[in-house]
Structures are given as structure tokens and as C-alpha cells.
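User: Hey, quick favor. My workstation is busy. Could you predict this chain's structure for me?
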Amino acid sequence: MEIALVGWSLALTVLLAVGVLWVLDLLGRLRELDSRFERFSHEAREAGPGTASRPLSARLSRMNARTERLALQARGIERTLLRTVQGVGMVRYSAFEDTGGDQSFSLALVDGQGDGIVLSALYGREETRVYAKPVESWASNRSLTGEEEEALREARRRVNPDLG
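Assistant: No problem, here it is.
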């Protein structure tokens, strides 16, 4: 029983010491803030009522101008990003029965608006043929094979994952 009381007493003493140190630290921080506020108030009183706000007003004007420049720059970047490749979809397959290893492929490269190309390479034992078809607004004016359509769907999912 006495050991438990000693343990509790020791724990409470440590907690009390930590609490006292914390309060002393907070008092020191409060004194520092009070000192800063007094210096600021003194400088503002000596400078006059309108003088203290002039540097703040100039700084605010500079920040507003910078914010406007950054907003213009951000709009330019957004316009540029719409035209970059954002969706990539690739499907590998065997185009011919006598070749294995899924060496043929269809690759769709499109921007954020669905404009781009679908490339297909058909690998055969004697030759490889490459085809390119344009894509505008997620569709092509050329007929697409099943693999090319699948590659385009995959690219669209990567641009807009909400489409499933």
C-alpha cells in the first residue's frame, strides 16, 4: 500500500513540475508578445495615424499585383495542359495466328479533350505494319478495330477516372 502511495506521489510531483514549467513558458511568451505589441503601438503613435498604414498599403498593392500575374500565368498553364498528352492506353495482342507473344499493339495518345492519335503495329513473321489514325473528341473519322477502341477507352479512363 505504501509503495502505491509513493508511486502516486511521485507521479503527481512530476505532473506538478511539468505544469509549473509550462505555465512559466507561457508567461514568458506572453511577456514577449506584450513587448512586441508595445513597440508596435509606440512606433505607430510616433509616426502618426496615416503613416503606419502606408507601408502596409504599399505591400498589399504589390501582393495584389503579384496575385494577378500569378492568376494569368495559371490560366495560361491550364490552357497549355489541355493540349498535352494526358491519356495513354495500350493493348497488346497477336494479330496473326502464326505469331505468338502478343507482339502487335494499339496505342492511344490523347489530350484532355480527347484529341490525338491511335497507333497500331501489326507484327507478322515477314513484316510489321504500322497504322496511325486521328482522334478528335474521343472519336476517329477512320474505322477503329476492337483493340484500337479498347486502347482509346483506356486512355479516356486515364484522363477521367470517373468514367469507370
